């Protein structure tokens, strides 16, 4: 139903308008999904325990789709085992000028230059207070106007305000759409940032897992630095990967748009990064695999490369909720 009816209608609209229309229907007519879509698979054999948390299944929603914690319950009802909200910043910000979201249909891809558009961490907290059992990741970043030398304070504000309402944190320094943000991936500033957050974490009665989301464009030497940083700061793990600046092999006319590319063109590279981190670290920390998962086989490839969990974004937009079910079915076949 999604690919034959819903997606063709949505793809006739501007991508950002389609996004908000989807959220409107999820919030107001989410009950229809229970009537017309296959029931999500619930099976104890799909449960995973990773960095001290129990996930009902290993397929999550990646950050960027439910930035403002608007529909986390509705996404969980579609079958996701966990939902990552954000990226959130201390203050609300509109993001970059429109048009800023582009489909590359021939490539099964998306380019976005949203720029951390969000309603601010306080608004998200108010919505998360109503959470009834959805496992939530909180993806945090800095405001565009905050200079990099003060970025740590933005992350600390988000960490403190979200602490009681999320199950794990994700430090996003890898989006290509906030000026100079990726400079925070360099070894010295990144070690300082993660160290400050871990210091806050250790002062809590019970700690929350902190993960780092990295870009697929890092070199092998930079990835080795990431392994060392994870070890030194004792964070819980890594999310691999964010969107890419690469445009290699694209066919669509929108390929020249600036921003981060996600979808099928990222499948191979994100898996390479997962495998490299897993092998070179000796499987020292959990990895959440994301990037170009459009089939159950794509998900299994990332899990076999060393990921403990996977997340969907662009693949979910192109393939629909059935993809969650297909991945979990394939996993059960291997049990």
From TrEMBL:
Residues 46-333 form the Dihydroorotate dehydrogenase catalytic domain. FMN binds at residues 63-67, 87, 139, 172, 213, 241, 263, 292, 313-314. Its EC number is 1.3.5.2. It is a peripheral membrane protein. Keywords: Cell membrane, Flavoprotein, FMN, Membrane, Oxidoreductase, Pyrimidine biosynthesis. GO terms for molecular function: dihydroorotate dehydrogenase (quinone) activity. Its cofactor is FMN. Its main location: membrane. Substrate binds at residues 67, 112-116, 172, 177, 242-243. The active site is at 175 (nucleophile). Pathway: Pyrimidine metabolism; UMP biosynthesis via de novo pathway; orotate from (S)-dihydroorotate (quinone route): step 1/1. InterPro entries: Aldolase_TIM (IPR013785), DHO_dehydrogenase (IPR050074), Dihydroorotate_DH_1_2 (IPR012135), Dihydroorotate_DH_2 (IPR005719), Dihydroorotate_DH_cat (IPR005720), Dihydroorotate_DH_CS (IPR001295). It is found in: Cell membrane; Membrane. Binds 1 FMN per subunit. It catalyses: (S)-dihydroorotate + a quinone = orotate + a quinol. It holds the Pfam family DHO_dh. Belongs to the dihydroorotate dehydrogenase family. Type 2 subfamily. Catalyzes the conversion of dihydroorotate to orotate with quinone as electron acceptor. Monomer. This is Dihydroorotate dehydrogenase (quinone). It comes from Chryseobacterium suipulveris. The lineage of its organism: Bacteria, Pseudomonadati, Bacteroidota, Flavobacteriia, Flavobacteriales.
